[in-house]
């Protein structure tokens, strides 16, 4: 079991992870930190850290829900398309979205 130190909202936390997953966990923490920073900038200093963490988690959960809904929609189109090319188009769209998310994570 590996351990990586991550920084979220200026605080460092030790996080255990599977061996070889340290870089992945670090990228996830950077994404969470960036999203939290964006919310903190909008909310201002009057919002406490606990609430910021809750709001950040809700925001990320919403993003994940959207991605799952998109995937389910693409799967449904693929099952109904029966090889007419729509599945390939849908997969291309999903791949583009995943690549854009990955690029955002890398910039963090």
Report on this structure:
The protein has about 110 residues and is α+β, with helices and mostly antiparallel strands. The chain has one domain. About 70% of the residues lie in helices and about 15% in strands. The chain is built from 3 helices and 2 strands. It has a two-stranded antiparallel sheet. A hairpin with a 2-residue loop joins β1 and β2. α1 packs across α2 and α2 packs antiparallel against α3. It is globular.
Return residue spans where pLDDT drops below 50 for at least 5 consecutive residues: none
- Discrete helix count: 3
What share of residues is helical? over 70%
Strand order of the largest sheet: 1-2
- Rounded radius of gyration (Å): 18 Å
Q: Shape, please?
A: globular
Q: Which H/E pattern describes the elements?
A: EEHHH
Mean pLDDT: 84
How many domains? The number is: 1
Distance between the termini: 26 Å
Assess the beta-strand content as a share of residues.
5-15%
The largest sheet is: 2 strands, antiparallel
Structural class: alpha+beta
The total of beta strands comes to: 2
In a nutshell, what does this entry contain?
Helix content is 71%, strand content 13%. The protein is an alpha+beta fold and 108 residues long.
Features:
3 helices, single chain, globular, about 110 residues
């Amino acid at each position: 079991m590996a351990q990586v130190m991550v920084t979220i909202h200026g605080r460092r936390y030790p996080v255990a992870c599977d061996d070889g997953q340290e870089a992945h966990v670090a990228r996830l923490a950077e994404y969470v930190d960036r999203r939290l920073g964006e919310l903190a900038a909008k909310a201002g200093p009057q919002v406490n850290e606990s609430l910021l963490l809750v709001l950040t988690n809700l925001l990320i959960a919403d993003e994940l829900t959207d991605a799952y809904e998109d995937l389910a929609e693409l799967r449904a189109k693929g099952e109904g398309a029966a090889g007419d090319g729509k599945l390939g188009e849908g997969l291309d769209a999903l791949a583009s979205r995943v690549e854009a998310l990955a690029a955002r994570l890398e910039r963090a």
